[in-house]
Inverse folding.
């Protein structure tokens, strides 16, 4: 046998066991038991062969690949192993330490293998080698197999290359004999070496490629296995390890668009250095924003963009074909269809916005707005819902014509103009009428004016058509009249309206949701949990948790509130009648808010109850009712000495704990670990340790997150993602 064949033999044997090092095979029953001396019936030659072939086949079947060296496959019916050499420059010596010898030991001990012969070298008696030193059997076999190779290829073993195995076929001879039995069986296997070119010739097909102008082309996308061989994993692995470049003269580029296609030839270079040409391959080049082709490939980095409209508010702009856009780029404005708002609608917008970078298949939708609520002062305050009122606006606040047939009228008034007045969108009057867009389910909260008490009075409640009831989230109807009532002011610095438009007396229903952060730390990385919180900070918390708009950034109407960071929050809570200033015209934004004031502030947005708090220091206090209500709802606690300390400043930790309780926000250690996908994004603070009593409440307040309620109807959350 020549040197190449012996090299191939070693490679095949090594591959047999490379992937099954240490594997355990079903053992044959020995013919003799050394402890009892009992002898079992010798297996027939067929049984010996069947047992060995089954064990050997399991190893041959697992001949897969060794990165950069070879890829193998096994034909069990013909006892044939095919090996594709990926890098012929590698030395045979590099295969010395594979799992071959582990496999030989197992076949000897468990499957009656007694002798092996590599090519024309002398047979090796495995029993003799094993009996000399069982512990060093693997090492001994390693030396002997390498020695056989050296003898088969005299003087060249140190420089033998895997390339010598290409196009060679070698026989392996295994001798089987059951201990204590006379008959032996010889089994032959064939190992065949192949180059990648020989294996893949006639089995490759061109694949068309799509690319955008000026993009680099991955020519490997232009080659595939043909239809007959497309599911052959062995061949696919060889192709995957190859490199591909354009062989066309001149080489094709993406300098300009060509949707008709540019034909050419690709050169495939395999790991063993052999090559194949793949002709008739086509490259299509598209402008970014080109019409999506129907029967041609699109670039691998393309996303599909479509255009749609809100049929209610936007004129029909006809059918617009989908386009393809490079992922991560914006759509050329010229690609958008010309969209126009229908009569009565205005401020047409695209969603997402036109300048949005597209990362996935996207539909841009055009829609237009219509002013849904238009307040005005009626000509006759005694008939504020008169459809023929001469003061009914003919244009909306933006100057767009109003189609009065699309609106109905409701009105708001004060019970007594001496006690208070109303303000809505810059209009201040004792009576305010409102045009309401039909078919929009407008609620009283959408149209509600701010009730402004006069000196000595405070806002009490609204009634609807003379009846006091909860109607804030219910749709208004044509002709509804809402009346604001005022009471004489109680002592205290914060006066808030009673709850009249919410219904919290129901189980938690938002099983999944998103909570936005409403508490920020300081630039130095602290949160100061035990520091005090100001009235402006409290206004910000409530505004954010109530979802109030912070868009009005004008200077608040108080003598001590210069334009500052808190403008939007103070304007929002005052507009919503959730906080007010002091009789001297100040708001005291930077003053510490007391525990009593905080209790009074949340009274308007919490459930009423008849509980009496057990605190000894609140009797007769101006905020006694608010403290009783907060205590009854489980929002506040006192001190161990039975005091509440109503006039003491409230800390930031206390404030967020109350706020989280009020708005059904709660997290614990399990909720931060069980399902959270990005725990590293958790925002923490250097002065807040996990041992702080309010640690989890502050984490809840300071991290925007997606959550899932742990148990249906319960508050505790498991976080999914930190935003």
């Amino acid at each position: 046998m020549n040197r190449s064949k012996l090299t191939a033999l070693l490679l095949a044997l090594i591959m047999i066991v490379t992937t099954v090092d240490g594997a355990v095979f079903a053992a044959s029953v020995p013919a003799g038991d050394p402890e009892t001396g009992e002898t079992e019936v010798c297996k027939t030659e067929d049984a010996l062969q069947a047992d060995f072939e089954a064990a050997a086949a399991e190893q041959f079947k697992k001949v897969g690949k060794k990165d950069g060296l070879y890829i193998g496959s096994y034909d069990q019916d013909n006892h044939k192993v095919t090996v594709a050499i990926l890098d012929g420059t590698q030395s045979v010596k590099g295969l010395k330490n594979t799992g071959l010898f582990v496999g030989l030991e197992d076949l000897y001990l468990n499957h009656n293998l007694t002798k092996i012969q590599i090519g024309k070298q002398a047979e090796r008696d495995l029993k003799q080698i094993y009996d000399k030193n069982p512990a060093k059997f693997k090492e001994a076999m390693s030396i002997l197999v390498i020695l056989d190779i050296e003898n088969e290829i005299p003087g060249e073993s140190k420089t033998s290359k895997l390339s010598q195995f290409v196009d060679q076929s070698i026989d392996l001879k295994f001798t089987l004999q059951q201990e204590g039995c006379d008959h032996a069986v010889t089994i032959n296997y064939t190992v065949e070496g192949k180059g990648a070119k020989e294996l893949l010739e006639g089995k490759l097909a061109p694949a068309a490629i799509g690319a955008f102008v000026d993009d680099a082309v991955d020519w490997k996308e232009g080659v595939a296995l043909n239809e007959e061989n497309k599911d052959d994993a062995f061949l696919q692995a060889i192709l995957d390890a190859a490199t591909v470049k354009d062989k066309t003269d001149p080489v094709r580029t993406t300098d300009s668009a060509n949707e008709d296609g540019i034909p050419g030839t690709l050169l495939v270079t395999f790991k063993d250095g052999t090559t194949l040409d793949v002709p008739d391959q086509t490259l299509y080049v598209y402008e970014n924003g080109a019409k999506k082709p129907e029967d041609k490939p699109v670039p691998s980095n393309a996303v599909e963009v479509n255009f749609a409209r809100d049929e209610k508010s936007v004129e029909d702009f006809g059918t617009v074909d989908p386009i393809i856009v490079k992922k991560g780029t914006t759509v050329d404005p010229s690609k958008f269809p010309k969209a126009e708002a229908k009569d009565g609608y205005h401020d047409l917008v695209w969603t997402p916005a036109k300048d949005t970078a597209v990362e996935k298949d996207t539909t841009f939708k055009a829609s237009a707005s219509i002013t849904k609520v238009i307040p005005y002062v009626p000509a006759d305050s005694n008939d504020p819902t008169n459809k023929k009122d001469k003061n009914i606006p003919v244009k909306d606040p933006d100057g767009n014509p109003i189609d009065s047939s699309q609106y109905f009228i409701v009105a708001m008034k004060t019970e007594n103009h001496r006690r208070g007045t109303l303000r809505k969108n810059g209009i201040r009057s004792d009576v305010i009428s409102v045009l309401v867009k039909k078919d929009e389910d407008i609620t009283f909260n959408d149209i509600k004016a701010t009730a402004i008490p006069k000196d000595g009075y405070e806002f009490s409640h609204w009634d609807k058509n003379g009846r006091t009831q909860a109607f804030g989230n219910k749709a208004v109807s044509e002709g509804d009249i809402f009346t604001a009532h005022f009471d004489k002011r109680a002592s205290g610095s914060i006066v808030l309206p009673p709850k009249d438009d919410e219904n919290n007396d129901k189980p938690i229903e938002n099983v999944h949701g998103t909570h936005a952060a409403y508490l920020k730390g300081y630039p130095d990385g602290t949160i100061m949990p035990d520091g005090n919180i100001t009235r402006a900070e409290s206004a910000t918390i409530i505004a954010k948790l109530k979802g109030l708009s912070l868009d009005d950034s004008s200077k608040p109407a108080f003598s001590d509130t210069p334009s500052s960071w808190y403008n939007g929050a103070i304007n929002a809570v005052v507009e919503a009648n959730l906080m007010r200033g002091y009789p001297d015209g100040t708001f005291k934004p930077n003053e510490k808010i007391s525990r009593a004031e905080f209790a009074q502030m949340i009274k308007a947005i919490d459930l009423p109850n008849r509980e009496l708090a057990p605190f000894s220091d609140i009797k007769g206090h101006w905020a006694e009712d608010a403290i009783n209500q907060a205590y009854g709802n489980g929002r506040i606690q006192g001190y161990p000495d039975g005091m509440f300390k109503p006039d003491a400043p409230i800390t930031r930790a206390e404030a967020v704990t109350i706020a989280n309780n009020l708005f059904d926000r709660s997290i614990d250690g399990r909720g931060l670990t069980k399902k959270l996908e990005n725990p590293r994004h958790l925002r923490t603070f250097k002065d807040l340790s996990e041992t702080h009593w309010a640690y989890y409440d502050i984490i809840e307040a300071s991290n925007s997150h997606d959550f899932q309620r742990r148990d249906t109807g319960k508050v505790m959350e498991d976080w999914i993602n930190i935003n």
